[in-house]
Design goal:
The complex is a heterodimer of chains A (229) and B (304). Chain A is an alpha/beta fold. Chain A has seven helices and ten strands. Chain B is α+β, with helices and mostly antiparallel strands and 304 residues long. Classes of the chains: A alpha/beta (229), B alpha+beta (304). Chain A: It holds the Pfam family ABC_tran. Chain A: Its main location: membrane.
Chain lengths: 229, 304
């Protein structure tokens, strides 16, 4: 599903690489936590997965494709098979919940009939059944994140990337979000989640990868958060 | 591709940047209006050239009896029939001359003169014997005038060789100068229009960075992401071009048909067919140029 072969990434005009010599493999259907302090390279790792950046050295394989060899115009096709969720939800404030989810389908040219059928289904799945016509501003943070997850999942992606999805939420709401992500993972979707939330990592007991100053320093199945911050 | 979705995005974008869109429309309208006007002016100059060059010719004026003291070639008084016949024969041998060579007698010259000046007081001052006889020579290539001049101006009996083009040339030079000036102004306006478009696209891309960011994440193709911006610019440009067309048609109607044509009747003015030929070009440029400008601006201001 995901394979890194000796991947390094150095941003232009910076001496210290953001990632150095990272090699790892993530299988189909896994649930992986990515932990590490700020500046350890988590964001760079996720950006490489989405091909927002290209690796300076080494090869990144996602969904069986070598991203270095993927031409620019094929990148959108690749991203359609990857869902993304962020700390700040990234919803469109002037569209309703339903329209926000539908937007993801409209811009990749899905037929209207299919959109009308799938949007309520996926909103039901994330626990927002019947809230299609609400505006994002009327919802709580947890509900907004559910909308974002619905949008990420509406294409039934093979891979879901979550960048601190619970970063803006209180612990109780976070648990709900994690349950949802776990449920999505059980449908066969691989989940890679960067987080600072110790409680969640310790509770879930999933595979944990720790980055420190750009190096992969720990890769543990059924791991814990493991360091104090 | 869902047309309705794209169209609603464009509508939102145009409304959001209403002032900028307006500025783009006005500057495109002015620059393309000038562009069309200068094309029409060039047309006008070339029809006038065709019309006049067809009418004008090289005149070889002969000495008449009053010129004995004046011209150097005319020392012997009026040109003899022999001299005239020699020159006529020689003209007929020259390949650049369009045959037949026309002869204008003093009486005919007087008649033309009367036609031109009619019953005005000047007409009474001239008598037929004051006007010289002449050959009116039409050249196949009007620019070869100097050949005739050098061949005949020093002949005995020839008073003067005159190219009538010399009298109309300054007018054409003036018109051409005006045309170049109009093109320069148009060029400047075009640069202004392009910069406005680039800036509009930048503002538009910035105010929609949330939408475009999400589009990118969910895998919309770059074509799909850029399309609304490019169409926006193209629509604004097309509106500007439409206004330019209105300006051109209005200008032709009011300025040329109603004003100039009544004042100056000797000039053949361009017809609606020339205008009709210019309008599609104006519209096409108005559509393509802003779209291209937007496309290149997007490469800089919109990450896809």
């Amino acid at each position: 599903m995901i394979r890194f072969d000796n991947v390094s990434k150095t941003y232009p005009k910076q001496n210290r690489p953001a990632l150095r010599d990272v090699s790892l493999e993530i299988e189909r259907g896994e649930f992986v936590f990515l932990v590490g302090s700020s500046g350890s390279g988590k964001s760079t790792f996720l950006r490489l997965l989405l091909r927002e950046e290209r690796a300076s050295h080494g090869h990144v394989h996602v969904l069986g494709k070598d991203l270095a060899k993927l031409s620019n115009w094929k990148v959108p096709q690749m991203r359609r098979q990857v869902g993304t969720v962020f700390q700040d939800f990234r919803l469109l404030p002037n569209k309703t919940v339903g329209q926000n989810v539908a937007f993801a389908l409209e811009v990749i040219g899905k037929p209207r009939g299919q959109i009308r059928k799938t949007v309520p289904e996926v909103l039901e799945l994330v626990g927002l059944g019947g809230k299609e016509d609400r505006m994002p501003g009327e919802l709580s943070g947890g509900e907004q994140q559910r909308v974002a997850i619905a949008r990420a999942f509406v294409n039934r992606p093979m891979l879901l990337i979550a960048d601190e999805p619970t970063g803006n939420l209180d612990p109780q709401t976070s648990v709900g979000i994690m349950k949802l992500l776990d449920r999505i993972n059980r449908t066969g979707t691989t989940v890679v989640m960067a987080t600072h939330d110790q409680q969640i990592v310790d509770q879930m007991r999933k595979r944990v990868m720790e980055l420190e100053k750009g190096r992969l320093v720990r890769d543990q199945s059924r791991g814990v958060y493991g360091y104090q911050h | 591709m869902r047309a309705q979705f794209v169209l609603s995005e464009i509508g939102v974008g145009l409304r959001r940047n209403l002032t900028m869109t307006f500025a783009v429309i006005v500057s495109v309208a002015l620059s393309l209006g000038l562009f069309g006007a200068s094309l029409l002016m060039r047309d006008q100059v070339s029809t006038m050239k065709g019309y006049w060059y067809d009418k004008v010719n090289v005149s070889i004026f002969f000495c008449n009896k009053n010129d004995a003291a004046a011209g150097t070639n005319c020392a012997k008084g009026a040109a003899t029939q022999q001299q005239k016949d020699d020159i006529k024969a020689e003209l007929n041998r020259l390949p650049i001359v369009q045959k037949p060579v026309q002869y204008e007698s003093s009486d005919q010259a007087y008649k033309h003169y009367k036609e031109q000046f009619g019953d005005t007081p000047v007409a009474g001052l001239v008598t037929p014997d004051q006007l010289p006889e002449s050959f009116r020579v039409k050249l196949k290539d009007p620019t070869k005038y100097s050949v005739i001049k050098s061949a005949f101006s020093e002949r005995p009996g020839v008073q003067e060789v005159q190219d009538q083009r010399d009298t109309v040339e300054p007018l054409f030079n003036l018109l051409n100068g005006m045309n170049i000036a109009a093109l320069c102004v148009m060029g400047l306006m075009l640069v202004v229009a392009l910069m406005l478009i680039v800036n509009t696209v930048r503002v538009s891309a910035f105010s929609r960075r949330r939408e475009t960011g999400i589009m990118r994440l969910v895998g919309a193709s770059s074509f799909y992401i850029q399309m609304p911006f490019i169409l926006e610019a193209a629509i604004a440009g097309l509106l500007g071009a439409a206004f330019a067309c209105v300006l051109i048609v209005g200008g032709k109607y009011i300025l040329v048909n109603n004003w100039l044509a009544e004042k100056i009747q000797v000039i053949n003015f361009i017809g609606w067919d020339s205008v009709a030929a210019v309008l599609p070009l104006v519209l096409l440029i108005g559509l393509l140029m802003p779209a291209l400008a937007a496309f290149f601006a997007l490469r800089k201001y919109l990450k896809v």
